[in-house]
């Protein structure tokens, strides 16, 4: 398995793809290059996860449009925008839409590496959050539907009486379900149970 961090370079200028690709490869990154936003979008579902270096000014589809379409398709790879002089306002729009950073041409190696490392830091955080959510959901799988509803109410900060009223059951029954939740989740305190609930998205 290749443990090198992968960078997707999306730029219509071959000179940029080659120079940026060479710089990143010699800095220890794995690189894939794409000569247009459309080419990248076509294959992105099968592309390995990594960081995207995305040029703002491209014919056909510009960087902002590619960024928007990636978001629509649920592609959560971090994006660093590459911009020429005079495109700063566009780059700021891209950052407001979620881009990690923007790089002005000509590129300084240290600036490029720093932006890419920031991107991989975000990717690691996203992966760990996804992993925590999946683990929490697995743990909650032992609960009955009613026990899960009670836990959801607790995660919303509701008292037992309110949960009982909302679910059309007695407060005593809520207490029984609450005790069952603690036992099944193998936790000793309500705060431990709530941490699992929050990781799974309950209580919203």
Q: What is the tally of helical segments?
A: 9
The percent of residues in helical segments reads: 55-70%
How many separate domains make up the residues? 2
| Strand coverage percent | 5-15%
The main pleated sheet reads as: 5 strands, parallel
CATH architecture of the largest domain: 3-Layer(aba) Sandwich
Give the integer mean of the pLDDT values: 90
Spatial order of strands in the largest sheet: 2-1-3-4-5
CATH topology name of the largest domain, in short, is Rossmann fold
Q: What is the total tally of β strands?
A: 5
Name the CATH class of the largest domain: Alpha Beta
Keywords for this entry:
204 residues, alpha/beta, Rossmann fold, Arc Repressor Mutant, subunit A, 2 domains, 5-stranded parallel sheet, 9 helices, elongated
What does this structure look like?
The chain folds into 2 domains: 6-133, Rossmann fold, CATH 3.40.50; 141-199, Orthogonal Bundle (Arc Repressor Mutant, subunit A), CATH 1.10.10.10. It is 56% helix and 12% strand. The protein has 9 helices and 5 strands. It has helices at 14-26, 37-43, 63-72, 88-96, 109-140, 145-155, 160-167, 171-185, 190-199; strands spanning 6-10, 30-34, 51-55, 79-83, 101-104. It has a 5-stranded parallel β-sheet with strand order 2-1-3-4-5, with helices on both faces. Helix 4 (88-96) links the parallel strand 4 (79-83) and strand 5 (101-104).
């Amino acid at each position: 398995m290749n443990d090198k961090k992968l960078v997707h370079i999306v730029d219509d200028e071959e000179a940029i793809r080659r120079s940026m690709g060479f710089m990143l490869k010699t800095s220890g990154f794995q690189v894939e290059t794409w000569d247009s936003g459309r080419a990248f979008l076509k294959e992105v579902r099968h592309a390995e996860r990594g960081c995207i270096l995305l040029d703002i000014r491209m014919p056909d589809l510009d960087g902002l449009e590619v960024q928007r379409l990636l978001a629509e398709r649920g592609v959560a790879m971090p994006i660093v925008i590459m911009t020429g002089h005079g495109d700063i306002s566009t780059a700021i729009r891209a950052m407001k839409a979620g881009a990690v950073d923007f790089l002005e041409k000509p590129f300084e190696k240290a600036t490029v590496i720093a932006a890419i490392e920031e991107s991989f830091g975000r990717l690691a955080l996203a992966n760990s959050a996804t992993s925590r959510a999946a683990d929490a959901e697995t743990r909650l799988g032992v609960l009955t539907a009613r026990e899960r509803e009670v836990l959801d109410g607790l995660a919303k900060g509701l008292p037992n009486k309110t949960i009982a009223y909302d679910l059309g059951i007695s407060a005593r029954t809520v207490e029984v379900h609450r005790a069952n939740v603690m036992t099944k989740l193998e936790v000793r305190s309500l705060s431990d149970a709530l941490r699992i609930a929050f990781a799974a998205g309950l209580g919203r």
